[in-house]
Amino acid sequence: MKTSSLVCLLAFAITEVSAFPSIALDAAKIEALTKQSTSITKKAIGFDPVAQYVSTTGSHQFVPPNFAAGDQRGPCPGLNAAANHGYIPHNGVGTMGQIIDGVNTAFGMALDLGAFLAIYGAVFDGNLLGYSIGGPTTASQLPLSNTLGLTGAPQGLSGSHNKYESDVSPTRGDLYLYGNDYTVQVAQFKQYYEALPDGLSASAQYDALAPFHNARFQDSKNRNPNFFYSPFSGILVSPAGYNFPVRMMSNKSAEFPEGSLDKETFKSFFAITGNYPNFKYHMGYERIPDNWYKRAIGDEYTIPGFLADVLNHVEKYPELASIGGNVGKVNTFAPVDITALTKGVFSSANLLKGNNLECFVLQSAEAALPDIAIGTLGNLLGTVTSATKPFSDAVASRLAGLGCPKLASLDKNQFNKYPGYANCKDGCSHY
Ligand code: HEM
Ligand SMILES: *[C@@H]1O[C@H](CO)[C@@H](O)[C@H](O)[C@H]1NC(C)=O
Questions:
Q1: pLDDT per residue over 2-25, tens digit each?
Q2: By the 8 A CB rule, do 112 and 40 touch?
Q3: How far is the CA of 251 from the centre of ligand 2 (A)?
Q4: Which residues neighbour 365 within 8 Å (Cβ) at sequence distance 6 or greater?
Q5: What is the pTM (predicted TM-score) of this model?
Q6: 264 CA → ligand 2 middle, Å
Q7: What structural domains and CATH numbers belong to the chain?
Q8: Please, is 347 exposed, middle or buried when counting C-beta atoms within 10 Å of its C-beta (0-12, 13-18, 19+)?
């Protein structure tokens, strides 16, 4: 039911998007994207400079945001850079289709992962069809004039704390500690910079980043009395900040076909100038370096690839999979009772076994989706074209094909003892 509602939601949204010709993905593109993300077999990765070159000239020239004119930038350096280079709309407000397509073209994020992230952005932080990559924006820029905002007026990614944005981000501060969750804390960037080894492949770099990841988790525990780590934004989204840079911001080359993230490229993507250790952050100036190469065609970053990376760090530091938070004072981390939360379907003893962690986070992400009244949308679903079907199937197959114990719903009352959750139940941009 939940899976089918997710698929329907996606299908519905794509149908709606198609009603706006300028923002629709064309059928050929969707089919090509789907083929990419469903080719599971790992071939040897090559380097094709022509196919992998990412333009930073002409219509993709760097244009910084004009905040006074309403341009939006937020907690995601990938989306900020994509907007600055016109791979997604420059104003930082886009439809799911525009964002999925843009991050595929600019970074080689696979359709399945792009769709998964985009759906959640649209549902939790937008109006179902699209969203702002920064703060709230005037309704007119969003299709259907925000009438479908499901969780209140769309707050954008910056205002999605606990729904999407999470504590333990690598460079963005914990909301409660800094009063915002979307600007770079230069001291954190400096630690990240120090932890990133030069001249290694992306995989080796990612391995080397595990202690920094753990240190960020410990820092939240030790300093943030309202630290909260949820199944979706905590366990699933916050690790992205540790693997997306080496996987999707690294430059690809014949020497490093899977990429290697050098320090200058890293700084450029995080809007940092100056020489170590005297860094300066220029909010919104995330930039794709000139002469930069994305992931190989056929080697896009997929949901399975992402989950393997998440589990890699969890194996090194199992605490990174603990759901829970501090209970009002620093160093009071109390794990949530997984059995109670999942009504007996999972337990802390079996969560790290088999596919369970993956099943749990994907299903709880789904369980968190507001119920969509399929009845009301039924007539619209009838118009789904064959072009959009493979698109929704790509998401469905991942969610359905894991052989998961069935999680019916989450008992969210289990989270009430955490002030970081209780004070910010529906996402917030400040306490
Ligand atoms: C549909 C596409 C995407 C969506 C909806 C999205 C959304 C987000 C959100 C909500 C956060 C905040 C998470 C947190 O609080 O920890 C975030 C962080 C981040 N994202 Fe994205 N993202 C997308 C694509 C990308 C891509 C393609 C890249 C890289 C090329 C990227 C790189 C990052 C990084 C590095 C962070 C961590 C920032 C930090 O704290 O240092 N994202 N993203
Ligand atoms: C990326 O790698 C290519 C191929 O080795 C190289 O020519 C280019 O200068 C590199 N780009 C950046 C931004 O480092």
A1: 333 333 333 333 333 333 322 333
A2: no
A3: 6
A4: 120, 231, 232, 236
A5: 0.86
A6: 11
A7: 160-423 (1.10.489.10)
A8: middle
